[in-house]
Amino acid sequence: MIEINVEKYKELEPIYSNVIDDLFQNKINSFIFGNFDKLIKVKKNRTIVEDTINEKLPQQNNVVEFFNLVNNWSGEKKLSVRMLGELKTVSLNGKAKQELYYDILNNLNKVLKIELLNYVNSYMPLDKKIDSLTQLWTASYEDIRTIVYSGNFYPKTNKKTVYYKLLHSLYDFMTDKYFLKLEEYDTSVEKLYIAEKSIKDSEKKNYTKLANILIEILNMNICPYCNRNYIVSRNDKLGCNLDHFYPRSNYPMFSVSLYNLIPVCSTCNSLKLDYKFNCSPYDSEYKANEVYYYQYTSLENNIVKEIDIKYLDNNFGLKQDFDILKIKDTYQIHCIEATKFVQLKQKYNRKKLNEICNILNNEKKNGPKTDIEELEKLIFGQSIEDTELNSISLSKFNCDIRNQVEKADNSN
Ligand SMILES: [Zn+2]
Questions:
Q1: Ligand 1 centre and the CA of 240: distance in Å?
Q2: Cα-atom radius of gyration of the chain, to the nearest Å?
Q3: Within 13 A of 295's CA, how many CA atoms are on the CB side?
């Protein structure tokens, strides 16, 4: 598990929030289209619709006429289009009909949003109640964690409610969409919004999926969970999944929260499933190099037989997460890389490097002397910075094995 520098998300936050708000609005509208007949069976909703119509049409018979029409449309998906068409029997001109239709939609939309907010707040701890769902889209990882651990999610999370389904499916709605590419983002908030699925193939090259945008912003190539697999796309095939750190099956309100979405490889994502992990790469306290390291534990005739993981700090609960991801088992195939390194170091140990240095420097009359660090870089490669861990495959493993081999060499 490698930490992700969240500073890079700060600029994205307001833009992301706007996009999700917009999508959320669309999602609720399409829900109202698809469920209009069911919605108006609830007395309160029916009253809202009636009041809206009466405001526009004072004659009572128009309301009856309207509901007769709606009842005949039951099960109709394209209610929006038909509603506009069939409203012709109601004595209004085209523009007024359209206004009436949008008024009904907006009023139902408001009610639904209030009810959703109440639903979400029923799971929130007392001191974390929210005023608007927008607060959830860019809530920090630390805030989300506080809510998860002090909220009352079990066993109350009722998967059958409309609100659960709406929030849970927001993510699918979002990942269905193509987004304008990153370079075009900063010019305006409107520009970053979303092309519909129907955009032409020829135009698709200018659009991308959300996961690609996130890894581009974070400058990540490698899965932060395993630090092995590449998550960049090849041509237009996505190489990256977005893992819900707190699974959306139990925490649907965080289904599109930026800091609950972790760009990972498909293998890690399919192993994690609905497990609730302890250790998030977005945790600002977490630093991989302070929490664990890889080491070889068994060496026979300079051949590494086993890779182990040592934990320096158990507070992050990383071991349980790694067990689910099968990290230790997976890393056994890298005995071969560790062996190569051990053998190279055997050949070019400190003593040998000192000898080479001396020979080189004795030959040289003028100019800078060769030092041992320079030789090490030539033979073993450049060392990897902490900020590069998410860009280079096996970076953590290679650093740790190199440290171990160097320590062994120095103590000889
Ligand atoms: Zn992975």
A1: 9
A2: 29
A3: 14
Tokens for 354, please give them.
């000192």
Range 265-295 burial, b when 16+ CB lie within 10 A, else e: bebbbebbeeeebebbbbbeebebeebbbbb
Cα separation of 384 and 392, whole Å?
9
**Over the chain, what is the mean pLDDT?**
84
CA 70, chain centre distance (Å): 40
Q: Report whether 226 contacts 267 (CB < 8 A).
A: yes
- Residues with Cβ within 8 Å of residue 38, at least 6 apart in sequence: none
The pLDDT of residue 400 is 96
CA torsion sign, 276 to 280 to 284 to 290? positive
What tens digit of pLDDT does each residue of 223-259 get? 999 999 999 988 878 899 999 999 999 999 999 999 9
Q: How far is the CA of 223 from the centre of ligand 1 (A)?
A: 5
**For residue 303, what are the β-bridge partners?**
300
Dist. CA 341 → ligand 1 center (Å): 24
User: If you measure from the C-alpha of residue 268 to the centroid of ligand 1, how many angstroms do you get, rounded to a whole number?
Assistant: 4
* Per-residue pLDDT tens digits for 6-61: 998 888 888 888 888 888 888 888 888 777 777 777 888 888 887 887 777 666 55
**229 torsion bin: left (phi>0), alpha (psi -120 to 50), beta (else):** beta
CA of 335 to the centre of ligand 1 (A): 19
Rounded to 5 degrees, φ, ψ at 386 are -55, -35
Handedness of CA 371, 398, 401, 321 (dihedral sign): positive
Separation of CA 229 and ligand 1 centre (Å): 5
Sign of the Cα torsion 250, 255, 260, 262 reads positive
pTM comes to 0.85
Q: Residue 411 is which amino acid?
A: S
Q: Identify whether the C-beta of residue 177 lies closer than 8 Å to the C-beta of residue 196.
A: yes
Backbone torsions φ then ψ of 222, nearest 5 degrees: -120, 145
3-class state of residue 223 by DSSP: coil
DSSP letter (8 states) at residue 72: H
Distance 211 CA to ligand 1 centre (A): 14
Spacing, Cα 222 to ligand 1 middle (Å): 8
Contact between 339 and 22 under an 8 Å Cβ cutoff? The reply is no
CA neighbours within 13 Å on the CB side: how many for 196?
Answer: 2
How many Å lie between the centroid of ligand 1 and the Cα of residue 285? 21
